[in-house]
Amino acid sequence: MIVDLDIQPISDLPEISERPIVIAGPCSAESEEQVLTSAKNLSSMGIKIFRAGIWKPRTRPNAFEGVGSTGLPWLKRVKEETGMLTSTEVANVKHVYEALKYGVDIIWIGARTSANPFAVQEIADTLQGVDIPVLVKNPVNPDVELWIGAIERLHRAGIKRIMAIHRGFSVFAKSEYRNHPHWQIPIELKRRIPNLPVITDPSHICGNRVRLLEVSQEAMDLNFDGIIIESHPDPDKAWSDAKQQITAADLKILLDKIVLRKRDLENGLALTIGELRAEIDKLDDQIIDIFENRMQIADQIGEYKKEQGVAILQSKRWDSILNNRLEMGLEKGLSNDFITRVFRAIHQESINHQAKIMNIDSGME
Ligand code: PEP
Ligand code: MN
After folding, report:
1. N or C: which end of the chain has fewer CB within 10 A?
2. How far is the CA of 60 from the centre of ligand 2 (A)?
3. How many CA atoms lie within 13 A of 160 on its CB side?
4. Average pLDDT value for the chain
5. Is the distance from the beta carbon of residue 167 to the nearest atom of ligand 1 less than 6 Å?
């Protein structure tokens, strides 16, 4: 069901009217000098919204938990000296009061907080009657309803300028990402609240610098509105999330590499896509014909196995088929996962066919 919320485009703010929206700055505010250096570097390359964590939600209590309210005047200086909008994370009533007192322009609700309806409700109640844009990170767990719920709580408190941040989801299994992107979840969020702007946080998805461009590009290809990315003047020396931060100069290189595609299909393009889709339909037709041929041959082999009283499953043959197809797939740029799933399904269908010939039900779908 579509959730009908009269969310106002956050792009009302001239600073974020262009696409992609880029919010950048250090994971944490560490010192006045670090904050101002970072902001000036970013501002000089055209970044208009500065981020810096003042209160940091850390997994273990002995880690750096942010400079706290001491850092708020530094953000004020950023605003005065660069004209950038400033943003920070709030997780409780005190944070909200302090951030508002020091004129922070945009606040965001972190992933651990948006997973907690009590905390979100408390923040929403505190914001009643305040006109400030609020960014809502996805909850740490992959639950789109919880994400929507947090947005609804703020909206009910009268906050109309809301934007969602997709920062990936924590997983128990070891993963190549720090937080798995599960793109289908923000896609579902956009389907459910069509007018809600969504940006991606490649820094917290990746946890390192290697795939920042890839994840940012994917966000833009999925028609998201922008990115929020961590940038530090001296990333390796950062007091938190050192592995994933990049300098302003590297951020510029990354942004220059992002390819921005058109958001909608124009008439001419729709025609080209129509032709390409017709090609896809033709190829799918051929694939089905090939499956039919393959099953006919599997049937013949089944007849032979029946005559000879040979078992259907020949593990060695199946192993060599799979390994050989994986190799072939790799040469053609097809992932191991895809080839494995496709050939398992084909193999199962062949088994089902041969079981029918032998008059037994394989019991498998
Ligand atoms: C952050 O943006 O610095 C942060 C703590 O992020 P998250 O809430 O996504 O973990
Ligand atoms: Mn961080």
Report:
1. N
2. 14
3. 9
4. 92
5. yes
Residue 85, phi-psi category: left (phi > 0), alpha (psi -120 to 50), beta (remainder): beta
Its domain, for residue 280, covers 267-361
Tell me the CA–centroid distance for residue 333 and ligand 1, in Å. 35
Which CATH number belongs to the domain containing residue 205 in this structure? 3.20.20.70
How many CB atoms are closer than 10 A to CB 202?
29
282 or 268: whose pLDDT is higher? Answer: 282
* Distance in angstroms (rounded) separating the CA atoms of residues 220 and 263: 9
Residues 164 and 256: their CA atoms lie apart, in Å, by: 24
Short-list 252, 253, 241, 254, CA closest to 29 = 241
Residue type, position 349, single letter: E
Write down which residue in 226, 257, 288 finishes a domain.
Answer: 257
pLDDT for 92-118, tens place per residue? 999 999 999 999 999 999 999 999 999
Regarding the beta carbon of 27 and ligand 1, being less than 6 Å apart is answered: yes
Q: At what angle do helices 144-156 and 184-192 cross, to 10 degrees?
A: 40
